[in-house]
From TrEMBL, chains A, B:
This is Xylan alpha-1,2-glucuronidase. Belongs to the glycosyl hydrolase 67 family. Transmembrane segments: none annotated. GO terms for cellular component: extracellular region.
Amino acid sequence: MAAFVLNVVLGLVGTHLAHAADEDGYDLWLRYRALPAAQKTALAAAATGIAAPDDTPTVRAAAAELKRGLAGMLGRAPDAIPANAKVRAGTIVLARATLPAGLADADAVRRDLASVGSEGYVVRRTRQDGVPVTLIAANSDIGLLYGSFAWLRQLQLGTAPDGIALADKPALPLRVLNHWDNLDRTVERGYAGESIWNWWELPNIIDPRYTDYARANASLGINGSVLNNVNAKAEVLSPAFIAKAAAIANVLRPYGIRVYLSVRWSTPLELKETKTADPLDPAVAAWWARKADEIYRTIPDFGGFLVKANSEGQPGPQDYGRNHADGANMLARALAPHKGIVMWRAFVYSPPAHPNQVSDRAAQAYDQFKPLDGKFDKNVLVQVKNGAIDFQPREPAHPLFGAMPDTPLVMEFQVTKEYLGFATHLVYLGSLFQETLRFDTRAGNQPMTVARVLEGAQDGRVGGIAGVANIGSSRNWTGSTFDQANWYAYGRLAWNPDLDSRAIAREWAGQTFAPDARVVDPVVAMMMRSREAVVDYMTPLGLHHMMGTGHHYGPAPWVDDLARADWNPVYYHRADKNGIGFDRTAKGSNAVAQYAPEVARRFADPATTPPEFLLWFHHLPWDYRMPDGRTLWTDLVAHYDHGVAEVAAMQAEWQRLRPFVDARRFDDVAQRLAQQQREAAWWRDACIAYFQHQSGLPLPAGVRAPAQPLDYYRKQAFPFAPGHG
Amino acid sequence: MAAFVLNVVLGLVGTHLAHAADEDGYDLWLRYRALPAAQKTALAAAATGIAAPDDTPTVRAAAAELKRGLAGMLGRAPDAIPANAKVRAGTIVLARATLPAGLADADAVRRDLASVGSEGYVVRRTRQDGVPVTLIAANSDIGLLYGSFAWLRQLQLGTAPDGIALADKPALPLRVLNHWDNLDRTVERGYAGESIWNWWELPNIIDPRYTDYARANASLGINGSVLNNVNAKAEVLSPAFIAKAAAIANVLRPYGIRVYLSVRWSTPLELKETKTADPLDPAVAAWWARKADEIYRTIPDFGGFLVKANSEGQPGPQDYGRNHADGANMLARALAPHKGIVMWRAFVYSPPAHPNQVSDRAAQAYDQFKPLDGKFDKNVLVQVKNGAIDFQPREPAHPLFGAMPDTPLVMEFQVTKEYLGFATHLVYLGSLFQETLRFDTRAGNQPMTVARVLEGAQDGRVGGIAGVANIGSSRNWTGSTFDQANWYAYGRLAWNPDLDSRAIAREWAGQTFAPDARVVDPVVAMMMRSREAVVDYMTPLGLHHMMGTGHHYGPAPWVDDLARADWNPVYYHRADKNGIGFDRTAKGSNAVAQYAPEVARRFADPATTPPEFLLWFHHLPWDYRMPDGRTLWTDLVAHYDHGVAEVAAMQAEWQRLRPFVDARRFDDVAQRLAQQQREAAWWRDACIAYFQHQSGLPLPAGVRAPAQPLDYYRKQAFPFAPGHG
């Protein structure tokens, strides 16, 4: 009976879900699949033609996207309505700055337009000369493109055309992807194949894929792309590579995406064109000024430079006794005449000057950058990772966010899952991004979330947001279906940091699978439990940096033999027979003091520290009493078991979705979930074996012993792991 | 008026060519596009249903391919006819070994079947129980699959169903691809992206692309795949990687493709599981026997090993004072109980033992292997490159083909264009393959082409054929549309070495673009001039090995500073003020003597040496009088200019095809041809500048001077060229 009812319901809703044609993921969330009959009829009446200026590449891109989307959803492309033709019912009218005559609610639209700024849009059903139209209005071309994508998104989600009324603008002016792509096409921390930039064939052979990249990013409002790895090579600034970047810029430009490059500090020295790389040396400054001029001759709207300097062996101004501001400002002055910017990374951590020196990697970026607050030129932004270590499954927000009120800051999120299971483990990062953006720094002793900091709520220094891309030449762009969701979520939060990650997941699932609760609800439920699952089976209770050497895949909490102490997992958890955790209170490194006093006080006391950060801030005995009454050891083990159980639950949830997802994507997700299940158990077993070894404690009652002895886990090696770490 | 006529003609033939939907090349030559109306009607009547046993994966694959192909061409998939159903008109009947009752010409079919062997097929229109059917008959499952593909090929080419009558079998039992794919997914000499084998995600996450790889190869009759680079790593024989190979083997098996691995000679030593790698050491032999047993437990039909030993720094039996036969036979004995084979590469060339020793790289494989003729175990084949240097645009056939009558030989062709312009230059290699296969070795002083040698026409030693694959994870598999043709041509010649390369090109073009003379004729004309064009603008008149160091891209005839003399281009052309060319006659290295006497005599005298091999065998003065009356210098320059002109002609030809090819593929080919044009001119200019510098001669009258001085060409550098050479 249940099956009969299900079939009837399927019939009512539309059987387009059952036996759906295989999809390879290339279309991302821009699938524009045929609508069910009733919706198709309604949309067809509301999309008879497109009336748009045909005068710029961006507006043409908007019109082309509308045509593509509507052709997919309706089965028929709408007509292009000539400029002076009489408007007819169902026209989609694109209006840039000037509204068409005869618009029913022109004043209201003008008021909205006045509030959406240079990149925003207004979309509404209205009447022009008495006939119903859809108006997409903006103050600029790019607003028309963003508005078109926003309208199409609503249609894909099943919203009736009459019900769509939008007025939106981005919260931040700088919303970029950072590609860690090397010039040999490998991708550092890339798990989606090689770089999408075919450097060898550029600039003369242009892969049409670059256009689809631009479309996908424009659909999210991403407006910048740093093309190459922060571990940069001097060659990227050679004439040959500038020409390649220019060719890419030409494809991205109509979609509102500017091109940026990561630059290596020592470039002029390596090219033997200067004798030093001292930023205060006039010859060096002159070289960079000439280089900037050269770049802007072929890329007039070049965005600027991203710089990793004096970090992990990269050269920088400190090599010459200068500081980060000296370096950043020199570059900034080379770019300023061209309106370019410098994004200078704060990801720095140095080995201790003396072997006995107490050193907390988590404290060093603050130590180096806080004193420089306010000392950067106007066109310099300081780019700060979400947390103070390195893109762990969970980190408290970086203290710098609350500590540099006079410097515009850029949030650096990692969309690619370097420490979270590559493209194998299903982990929805929207939860992680949201957690950081909503963190209240309490800077100035008032509510001041990280999002507000980026938006310039402190002293007016408007920053931006960057995502280390998970994009590669894999057919589905990101290596797995659900890793597409992380690109999507990053882009949506870059546009509006206040969006809810669950709502974003619902948008993504509706467009990527179907706007049907029978799919969306379970998919989103699975996504929303996935982040906490990975925290639990990898690094619960504030543990961090326990991944395998180099590739960062798989458990290796035992590693203690790397060249620098602060590369060893044991440095971060300090587990021994007495306890576990890193003391960042005044008794330890005192890194808590880098937070605002109210936050510092909360983190300074284990009793007030949220359990999810406990071992980030505290070194505690194994029998420390947790809020739930259990010992720390028992709780830790319980978290590991919970993580494994969560993955099993995710797998079971996914299996129920088989009737609703095409076989190809279904099977691929299922194979990955099965692998994630095995690996979650591996993480759990290896870590429990190790911590049991360190503590000497018996397993809590009823807990299953690890499948193998500790030595088995220690021996696991992965010589050819992707990501080139 | 002409346009009107053209449009009428287009309308008559079918307008499916005009405004064709963009294609990305993924479907290769298996596009199965909708037929024009008249042909569709005829085929629909002849393809109403498929009656096939449903009892093995291979037969199911055949039925699935028929269904796919017919659904594409007809717009409707034929029905699956149950086993005992009454046959109806238009059924496609698959018959393995046993013919169905009621077959009209059963005796004739049986006679054909008796002649097509274990892999062949018979396809004909006939009657069963009085109704017209298409019979696809074979002695084995794989013959049914090959027959199905052959029938579909004819249909795609527009042959009427009633006109298709085929009886065919492959000439060689071993028809393999060699992937030079590394375990980190890079591809040596690969220009089509990274390896298609996603090693990291194997064995548990299976890319559906592997199935399409299998289909493409089965459509050509390729029946083996060596998965990994001949510059092999010990890890490929680890349990983890054997499991990955087994997972691939499971996908390929239904398509008749066996999996092989390249193995590193020193593996047991590197794994510290033996103390030596001496092939005569019992512990070493025992190790390999155990390793073979291990492999066959998960891959019961594992093909065997491909071995590069004592070549270019790879370890081998000579490190222990043993010879190639000692090494090959030890491995062969490990594989023999499992019916596996060893393909032992003859690509060896050693630096001279003494600095003054005269050494001709082209002579060394013969010197090392000829004495071993007949000394290999039955399941060893010696794999020989098509020429004695290394996959140049033109080489005379390798002398070993006429010199090892008691050893089964494998031809090694290079399908990937290491020395022929990567995936940028359009070069149809069918011409090159055919030239080598039809070369008459005159072994035994009788007609004995290389093809006949491979087929065992000498002492019954049946060999095989191998192609170094040009396949990667690029969407179109091979990096460019026309590089697909080289995969296709290799496969067709592997099946039947007597096929004509122009006929193969027509097949390929008809399936890849459209079976329409307006497309096929110009496309094939372009393809058939392309090989000689590249010879002319790179290395005319028998010149060879002049490509850039490492990456082998671009002209570098001046290089003279590499660690080994026989790596330097100057070693190969020896151009100085007096002359140019490598003397391989008795006055020089006497490598000509490695050919049969009749051939050796022909090549020993410049007057009887074909001009295309002149400078391969002779060092001649610049004023040597060529058959056409011009001096060698003038002729050389003329060849360079002709090559450049040929590319311009190819470009012009392609431009005329714009109305007949989808925009996406058209533009991509056009961009590549434009790049090839620029690079042909670069080759021409650089080589003429250099040879002019060496010879001190003025340019022939009317010849355009190189665009830049010689130093400009010498300075060109390509630090990030693909192919990891």
